[in-house]
Amino acid sequence: MRSAYLVLGVPGNATPEEIEQAFRTAEHQFPRERLAEEEGALGRMGEIRNAYKVLRDPESRAAHDRKLQETARPRPRPRTVIVESDEPSPARRMLLAGVLLAAVLFAAAGFINWRTAQTRKEEAAIQLATQKAAAEAAEQKRLDDERQAQLRTAQAKQAELNERRLAMESRYSAANAAAVLQSQEFSAANARRTELYEQQRRESSRVEDERRAAYEARMRTESDKARIRALCLQNYHRVDC
Length: 241
Fold this sequence. Notes:
Layout: H1 4-8, H2 16-29, H3 32-37, H4 41-56, H5 58-72, H6 90-236
Helix pairs in contact: 2-4, 4-5, 4-6
């Protein structure tokens, strides 16, 4: 049997860390492009994965080591006795039957190996397709996440713009209300000043009218007195009657 240590390229006393490192190195040596383009790369990578699965598990590794020890033991060579005879002896017939049986077994083993290689190729192709589908799904998820992030960013910017617009409209409304109030207060102040001026003008006119009326009354009185004095002087020859 083929040693898993030779397939993975590690010694028989390799530690789990060395086995793990050897498998990671093999994975880097057989990227997806090489597996897809190079003939036999899928089968080689399948053997490496199987060897890694055997060696990373302590129980399967121990069973593998026992099989290797059994394979390494020297088997006793059978002694062949050739007996010359006109008719084939039973031993010769058994030998021929054994040769035929061995040929059949070798052919069956070759077919099994070919079938195993085909199965490994199919498994590698399926695994490659699965990895490709997983990579495409991951890429699609990344694109979806990026679109969602861009959408959230755009929504956040739009919300910020709306808040700024509302704040500006609120400040404009407040400033407009303040301007209207100031204009109303200014108009009210002007109205009060105009009313006060009108009151002062009417009061000044009234005082002036009263002063003029008093002056005219005084002048009439003085005129009357002068006329009376003149009459007294004319009639009684004296100023005071």
